[in-house]
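Hi all, long-time lurker, first post. I run a small reading group and we've been trying to get comfortable going from sequence to structure in the token notation. Rather than ask abstract questions, I figured I'd post a concrete chain and ask someone more experienced to write out its structure so we can walk through it together at our next meeting. Sequence below, copied exactly:
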Amino acid sequence: MISGIFAGVAWALETVVLGIALGMTFFNSTPQLVLLAPFIATFLHDAFSALYMLIFNTVRGEFKSVLAVLKGKSFKWIALSSAIGGPVGMTGYVLTVNYLGASIGAVASAVYPAIGTLLAFIFLKERVRWYQWIFLLFTLLGVFGLSYSPTVEVGNLWLGILGAFMCAFGWGIEAVILAKCLKDPEIKNEQVLQIRQSVSALIYVAVILPITGGLGYVIDIAITDTGWILPTIALAGLFATVSYLFYYKTIGKLGAAKAMALNITYTAWAIIFTVVLLWDFSVLNPLTICLAAVVVVCGVFAAASPRELFLKCNDK
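-- Answer (accepted) --
Happy to help. Here is the structure in token form:
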């Protein structure tokens, strides 16, 4: 439970820091860069995360274990989940934001726990009680309230809907496949994350960026960046790495459904960090505070029943 909460907290930090990077002058200098910024930033973000995990696993003497996983029977499933969750899920999110607006894009990304929970219930036989479905529904409604905007500009409805499906199913399916893989006692969270981020970054640099025309801009940033773009994205990648480690641990311990319910609380934690880091007090109003509380509380109860939490507290 604590790991799941920390996963949400770390992802909230990642979201705020990555937002700072995307708001920098370089990414807003031309209309083409405005469209390509999410793809470029996501590739750099996942590449830095893969590098952090390479250093982490090497220092801990786990790099040979990563190579062993590459030769094992679970590798194809981990690689599949990486491709679905990274490029497919994230690309779908970008399409949704681009064509349906940021508010609906945020809601689309937050729907994945419902998809993942349903898939985990069907394929993994994870037990989800009736009231946990209700708490999950209230969590999603709270996320919708936090991200709702009455001024939504629709660019292309069908591409936006396609992106929403890619995002929700991509991230939901990823969690379910990983839950299956992490049941293997010989596979560790650190090994899976190393493979996940490496596969995602490779697909971006080999397929997505060349197709979208963003590869040249990545090279320009790497060679000529004299500002804070790379350090800021690197910091976001660090927070993302921490978040994924906690998230994968929670999936392994509690299952996909409960882990996703806890992870989605990042939408509420992001409000706190927006105020603390950016000094943006415009997000502080009674409605926002109430909705953030609903997201966190209902997210926790969607992962564990009140009775389970009460018994755990008494044990402590």
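A couple of things your group might point at:
The first helix runs from residue 2 to 22.
Residues 55 and 185 are 23 Å apart (CA to CA).
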